[in-house]
Amino acid sequence: MTLTDLQWGGRFASAPEPQLLAFGSSLGDDLILAAFDVQCSHGHVIALERGGLIVAADAAALHAALDRVAGEIVDGTFAAFAQGGAFEDVHGAIDARVRELVPAHAGESLHAGRSRNDQVATTLLLYARERADRGARLSLAIANAFLERASSSLERGSLLAATTHWQPAQPVLFGFWLTAAAQPFIRAAGRFARVKLDASAFCPLGSSALAGSSLALDRDAAARALGFTAPSRNALDSVGDRDVAMDLLSAVTRATVAASRPSEEFVIWSTPAFGYAQLDDSAATGSSLMPQKKNPDPFELVRAAGARLIGALGGALATTNGIGLSYHRDLQETKSLIVRGTEHGLAALDAFSRALAHLAFDEARMTAHATTGFTIATDVADALIARGATARQAHRLVGTHVLAAEQAGRALDASDLAALGETAGMDGFTAPLDGPTSVAAKRTVGSTSPTAVRDALAASRDDVRTLREALG
Fold it and tell me: Which of 329, 353, 396, 472 is the most exposed place for a label (fewest CB within 10 A)?
């Protein structure tokens, strides 16, 4: 590369050392931003023309060239062009390609009044807006998939021994568990929607390097053309602000972590010891050594992706810690972590959604084991409290009977209720001893009772519908 190839080469007496130029290049991370940089450049051409800085013919030529580059991005030829040169970033590669396609005076005007500082900041916001929309739609699709399964499972009355500490805790409707699994994705969609809204607020384009421009750029026209509400208020802040992009990575991380949690349960439920779930052949993988193996790999990888994104988010935040206002080259690392993390997280959410569609549940087996491990013990204690016992008394009395039944190798039964009633002085004492009676006995809003689950399902569907409408 010669000095004339560099946008900043005029001030230097010698070309940069190739190895150092390669070290400073962000092209490998930037290529995914190419389409968004083209959008940004269209906006800048509008600002130049409306400001009287280029004539209509040159503006038309630049727009046409940018449209051609957009097509080359889609068909892959631009990536080959960019990787074939010694470009510092995708922005320089696009500038070079446009200059090949238009008359020299027009091509050399494209960067007038623009710095890569405001260019990168604007491009990242355009990227964040599109990826936030994608993340929201993926999250809503996952939530809806859980809700659809919850609805059908609720009609069957299927049960599950819900756990804490991975120990059997209380029987619940499986539809209750499925509705619970949907909630984090509804919240994730809300976070993505807020990122999309924030990414459409203030347009940095026209901030130039950090102080604005002496040229009469029409920032309002550019902002409108790019779908922003208004130009940014302070150029110094705009060029170094990565808050929205960071919020995007945070939203992706939170959504991926949300997917990691049911993934953990699906992996465990797929073991023969549980036998509650199985991936069909379209989503599972096998072993290169053990012929019998059928592994739930997609859910294991999603589980690991959550950890990877936590690291990416922490790293991205760390790159912005302590740097002064305006742009610093540290932010190139910030961009890399945000883009790579976002792409991997969205891929993990897509994989989770696809794998979920291939997952079958053995609801009969779940229901058969719903009361295994004395899961109705809390119902018995609650029944004692309802008849006047204190919580501590009830806990102690029922715990004593659980211990005796465990030692005898049996479940709690009517003989235990009779003995408890006699000990507590409660004639005709009764309590749930089976799963359906247990879930039907729940009275509180948000519980696992069939009525509460139906209400939660309806409310969750309303939330999904509202968010979809907001996304447009």
Answer: 472
In the chain, domain spans: 17-112, 117-149+186-196+209-368, 377-469
From the candidate CATH numbers 3.40.720.10, 1.20.200.10, 1.10.10.10, 3.40.50.1110, the one assigned to the domain spanning 117-149+186-196+209-368: 1.20.200.10
Model confidence, pTM = 0.95
DSSP, residue by residue, 269-299: HTSTTT--EEE-TTT-B--SS-TT--B-HHH
Query: Which of 363, 359, 394, 365 minimizes the C-alpha distance to 380?
Result: 394
Name 245's Cβ contacts closer than 8 Å, sequence gap at least 6.
124, 125, 127, 128, 334, 335, 338
pLDDT 10s digits, 133-168: 999 999 999 999 999 999 999 999 999 999 999 999
Q: Which residues carry out catalysis?
A: 165, 287
Report, at the CATH architecture level, how domain 17-112 is classified.
Orthogonal Bundle (1.10)
C-alpha separations of 23 from 28, 71, 86, 87 in Å: 11, 29, 11, 11
